[in-house]
UniProtKB/TrEMBL annotation:
Its cofactor is Mg(2+). The keyword Transmembrane applies. The keyword Iron does not apply. This is adenylate cyclase. Coiled coil: none annotated. GO terms for cellular component: plasma membrane. CDD domains: CHD. GO terms for molecular function: adenylate cyclase activity; ATP binding; metal ion binding. It is found in: Membrane. It catalyses: ATP = 3',5'-cyclic AMP + diphosphate. Keywords: ATP-binding, cAMP biosynthesis, Glycoprotein, Lyase, Magnesium, Membrane, Metal-binding, Nucleotide-binding, Repeat, Transmembrane, Transmembrane helix.
Length: 327
C-alpha cells in the first residue's frame, strides 16, 4: 500500500516536472522511460507477491492434508494393533520407543482360562472339487469363530479376552473377578453352536474346559506379534478340554468352588487321569447360575490379599477374528 502511494507521488512529481518548461525534450523522454520501468517493476512485484501468497496457501493446505492423513493412518494402525493385541498391550507398544526389542511379559497371579473345541470339525472338513477344495468348510468354521468373537462384544463379556483360535479350538481368558462371566460365555457358546447346527444342518459338537490359576502373559514375535498366555494353569485348562466330553463344560475343582458359591449347578465327574498332573477330580458345569442376584465380583478362594490385579481386569475392546471387521 505504502509502495503504491510512494509510486503515485513519484508519478505526480515527474508529471509536474515533465509539464514544466525547465525540462528539455530528452529529459522528458528519460523521465517517461523511468516511469514506465517503474510501473513494470511494480506490476512484476505485485505478481510475485501474489504468487508467493498462492504458493504459501497451497503449501499450508498440503501440510494440513498430510497432517490429517497421518492422523488417519495413526488411528488405523491403532485399530489394527487393537485387533491383534489387548488394548493395554497395544498401548504399551505404541508408547514405547521405536526398535524396542525387549520381550513384553506380565505375571498374572490369577486368571480364568477357557478352551473350547469342535472335535468333529475334522470329520466335516474334506477337500473336494464340489466344495472348492475345502474352502466352503473353512468358510463355515470362519463364521462360527466370528460368532464366538462377536459374543465377546456383549457388555457382560467385556472382561473376557480372546487369546486365539487354532483350527477348531477357541481360547479365551479373563481376570479373577470374571470367572462367572467365563462360565456364562461357555454356556452361550454351546447355545450358539446349536443354532449354527440348526441353520447349517450340521452336527457339530462342542467340548469346553475351564481352569483358573497363575499365568505368564506375553507377546511373541516382532513382525507378526502374538499375544499369548503360558503356565501350568493354561496346560490344565487345555487338558480340561481335551479330556472332556462333547457338549459338556469340564471344570477343575477350583473353578467348581467359585461357581458353586455363585449358584451355578455343577456335577462331579469323579477322578480322571490328566497327563502331567496325575489323577484330578473334575466337574461339569450344567447350566446358568440359579442365584437371582449374582454380584459381579467373585470371591476367589485362591487369591491372596496382596494378589496383583491382572491385566485381564481391564476392560478389553472387542477382539474380532478378522481385522476388517473392526474397521
Ligand atoms: N498358550 C497355549 N496355547 C494353546 N495351547 C496351549 C498353550 N499352553 C499350553 N497349551 C496346550 O496345553 C496342553 C498341555 O500342555 P503340556 O505342556 O502339559 O503337554 P504337552 O506334552 O506339551 O502337550 P501334548 O501332550 O498335547 O503333546 C498342550 O496340548 C498344549 O498345546
Amino acid at each position: 500500500m505504502e509502495l503504491t502511494t510512494l509510486i503515485l507521488k513519484l508519478f505526480i512529481t515527474i508529471a509536474v516536472l515533465v509539464g514544466s518548461s525547465e525540462f528539455t525534450l530528452t529529459q522528458q523522454y528519460v523521465n517517461i522511460i523511468i516511469l514506465v520501468g517503474f510501473v513494470i517493476a511494480l506490476i512484476l512485484h505485485g505478481q510475485q507477491t501474489e504468487a508467493t501468497y498462492r504458493l504459501d496457501f497451497v503449501w499450508k493446505q498440503q501440510a494440513t492434508e498430510e497432517k490429517e492423513d497421518m492422523e488417519h493412518l495413526e488411528a488405523y494402525n491403532r485399530k489394527l494393533l487393537a485387533n491383534i493385541l489387548p488394548v493395554h498391550v497395544a498401548e504399551h507398544f505404541l508408547n514405547s520407543p521405536k526398535n524396542n526389542d525387549e520381550l513384553y511379559h506380565e505375571q498374572c497371579d490369577f486368571v480364568c482360562i477357557m478352551f473350547a473345541s469342535i472335535p468333529n470339525f475334522s470329520e466335516f472338513y474334506v477337500e473336494l472339487e464340489g466344495n472348492n477344495e475345502g474352502v466352503e468348510c473353512l468358510r463355515l468354521l470362519n463364521e462360527i469363530i466370528a460368532d464366538f468373537d462377536e459374543l465377546l462384544s456383549e457388555e457382560q463379556f467385556k472382561y473376557i479376552e480372546k487369546i486365539k483360535s487354532t483350527g477348531a479350538t477357541y481360547m479365551a481368558a479373563s481376570g479373577y473377578r470374571h470367572v462367572t462371566a467365563m462360565a456364562d460365555y461357555a454356556l452361550r457358546l454351546k447355545e450358539l453352536l446349536e443354532e449354527v447346527n440348526e441353520h447349517s444342518f450340521n452336527h457339530f459338537r462342542i467340548r469346553i474346559g475351564i481352569n483358573v490359576g497363575p499365568v505368564v502373559a506375553g507377546v511373541i514375535g516382532a513382525r507378526k506379534p502374538q499375544y499369548d498366555i503360558w503356565g501350568n494353569a493354561v496346560n490344565v485348562a487345555s487338558r480340561m478340554d481335551s479330556t472332556g466330553i462333547c457338549d459338556k463344560i469340564q471344570i477343575t475343582s477350583e473353578v467348581n468352588q467359585i461357581l458353586q458359591a455363585k449358584g451355578y449347578p455343577t456335577t462331579c465327574r469323579g477322578a480322571i487321569e490328566v497327563k502331567g498332573k496325575g489323577s484330578m477330580e473334575t466337574f461339569f458345569l450344567e447350566g446358568p447360575s440359579k442365584s437371582p442376584t449374582r454380584p459381579n465380583i467373585t470371591v476367589n478362594p485362591l487369591a491372596n490379599s496382596d494378589s496383583k490385579i491382572s491385566q485381564f481386569e481391564k476392560p478389553m475392546t472387542t477382539v474380532l477374528g478378522t481385522i476388517s471387521e473392526k474397521n
